[in-house]
Amino acid sequence: MSDKATLEFEGKKYEFPVIKGTEDELAIDIKALRGTSGIVTIDPGYKNTGSCESAITFLDGEKGILRYRGYSIEELAEKADFLEVAYLLIFGELPNKEQLAAFHMDIKNESHVDEEMKKILDGFPKSAHPMGVLSSLTSALVAFNPRSVDVSSDEAMYHSIVRILAKFPVLVAWAMRKKMGLPLDYGDDSLGYVENIHKMMFKKPNQEYKRNKIIIDALDKLLILHADHEQNCSTSTVRIVGSSHAGLFASLSAGISALWGPLHGGANQAVLEMLEAIEADGGDTKKYMAKAKDKEDPFRLMGFGHRVYKNFDPRARIIKTAADEVLNDLGISDPILEIAKGLEKEALEDDYFVKRKLYPNVDFYSGIIYRALGIPTDMFTVMFALGRLPGWIAQWREMRLRKEPIGRPRQIYVGANLRPFVEVDKR
Ligand code: ACO
To answer: Helix, strand or coil for residue 9?
Structure first.
């Protein structure tokens, strides 16, 4: 393999190094392109652009492979718990028992949120989307933890990380409890990380919290499956905001906003709303398949297609099985699951979807489990954010430790040329 690529432009040749990743991925390193030739590349949506070198997550969209730090997602979903996976993603290795216990203890020690934060939450109408609330509260946390912005020492960086891992679940629970009219409680440090999250979300003021292993295990698995996905829209947002040294919490707040969109994390809510609409409309999946294929119709089959996966999203496979198990274990029969399976079957056999390599993505089945666990539909994307938190932190940390430069793309200007200003009464 050649380790150089040549670009020929207007009779001149420019050579660029080719770099190879540990899984043999190739990239032309064009760092010197503009300096030597005066030209830039253009790639809207960054379909062909690597923004960084990263040692966190490997995915092969053609083969349907996803690994965190070299471990397969299938094995992690089966054998690890979410806190172990968070540690793995952020620090690079699976923790031993002592490291995991110390990490958890450090998180517990930071699990309070300033009472004043409740006043900010109070200012939102009950109808506010919890993703907007979560993004605002995460940003507001900076004001109560101003030292979290300075991460110049390893210790300071570690503290910012454990602080947000501790406080973020409280914000998630509060965002949901406010909507449900429940008091804003704190967690219970005697519980595991995920169980505590569940309790914070669902504990009723006048009832004892009952532990349900099926629910906790399902939640754990869902959070692991969402924990990282290399340079997607929200993660790239976190890295680019973080590259200005804006601080971890502000970077995460921006990532939450990016995740909110229906083409990204918001798809899990959109999938369930779509399945409910199909059910309410008589369950005619063929009608909706036809709408999805009609170029005049803006309708898309939500939960289908992926920028990177041109094969089955491995997370979707795991979630589909988990959805079956959870519904079975909880004794729930959900007609929505049947509609989802019907749509999947039809799409996998349909020429339009086959040709475009449109397969179910992680969001296609996750909403069905969230619904079975009693999580309100507009909290689905919040659950995604909760799962993605360690991935965002890991990517932000990597970017800071590698001392990456501020993210600042170029453009090709296609607007008006210089023209004289015209006074308002002459326009
Ligand atoms: N339903 C119908 N047609 C689709 C769908 C879909 N869900 N997804 C893509 N297509 C079609 C497009 O119309 C296009 O057709 P064309 O070539 O005839 O013009 C072709 O497939 C390629 O689609 P693009 O939008 O160019 O693909 P891109 O990689 O830019 O987008 C995306 C990927 C945004 C995920 C897209 O597939 C989509 O909108 N899916 C539905 C939303 C969704 O589920 N998002 C969650 C993604 S996973 C995540 O963020 C966790």
So the answer is: strand
